[in-house]
Amino acid sequence: MRYKSNLRAGAGMKKATGVPFFDLKQEYQSIKDEVNASVQQVMDGCRFVLGENVNSFEKEFASFCGTEYAVGVANGTDALRLALLVCGIGKGDEVITVPNTFIATTEAISQTGAKIVFVDINSSTYNIDVSRIEGAINEKTKAIVPVHLFGQPADMNPIMKIAREYNLKVIEDVCQAHGAEYKGKKAGSIGDAGCFSFYPSKNLGAFGDGGMVVSNGNKIAQKIKMLRDHGQIKKYEHLLEGYNSRLDEIQAAILRVKLKRLDEWNKLRQKNVSIYNDLLEDVDEVVMPSEAEYAKHVYHLYVIRTHRRDELQDWLKSKGVGTGLHYPIPVHLQKAYEYLGYKEGDFPVTEDCAKQILSLPMFPELTQKEIEKVVTEIKRFFAM
Ligand SMILES: Cc1ncc(COP(=O)(O)O)c(C=O)c1O
What we know:
By secondary structure, the chain is an alpha/beta fold. Helix content is about 35%, strand content about 15%. The strands form 4 sheets. It has a 7-stranded mixed β-sheet with strand order 1-9-8-5-4-2-3, with helices on both faces. Residues about 1-15 have low confidence and may be disordered.
């Protein structure tokens, strides 16, 4: 896809110096009046916990995802942990996921008491290599947690087929893929539950922490509602011991304003991707992100690969271009998981990626000029 030269009005007026990795200030400026009014309304009403905004946002988000239910929680890590718990995962169980993720995915698994079991990733999607899942299943395996990394869904049909065959639960980690689709279905709506983070820098981000579990299972939704609020079924009546993990009213009010723009923002991300892809096409040293034929990718991150990653990152930094590494140390090699006994070489695809990946600036308001600067600097680096 070719890009147009006048993508956004005013693009040429931006200062041509540095390019930030992301920029939440521009997004806030574009919705400031509406956000401020919605926050003011919450403050005027003085209902701060589990009120009308959480209730409405849950309905709106369920409708966006095409699920029956959505339950707001305190953050994405809790969304995963509570979803695993209500699916009956606990001590003595094993849960399969990838080592190429943020540690929250595995924290949620181990904090249920279950054992984390890793499966390597596919080198073009960076998501779970579905051909390796069956090899990791044994009689203790109870669930799979596919992570829709960088905004692209994992290959859900084969995952669901394996899950049905071995009677496993599937908890989708959608913390980086708000609005992504797998064969026309929203990421998060396919497994037993889909878990979202609203950390500020996400495609749909709050002004603080927030999370959501979506599901088509009534029992799953009702139990998470109970668990997030101290196991209460009504005030001071506790059916079980729960947690304090509620989405708050101010965050929900802000997220309602932002949800209305999510599709438009995701489209702007995709437009930016087509500019990057066109400009990087002839740079042989760079592997561009690839989009699986089944996927609508929402590019939470635009991740390239190169063998000279560290040098390139330093070069871009010296030119004022912000970048990120997602993730430089695979989870199985983290000190925190030494006890699991994994070693270097166990997951070669993940380990290779960790050394080569570089996330370039990506956010809806990024301009063509800024992308051109990023790519010009990349080309200059490889021409030296
Ligand atoms: C893949 C993945 N899983 C889980 C989480 C946890 O979300 P939160 O930070 O809201 O707890 C994140 C957040 O960064 C994430 O990227």
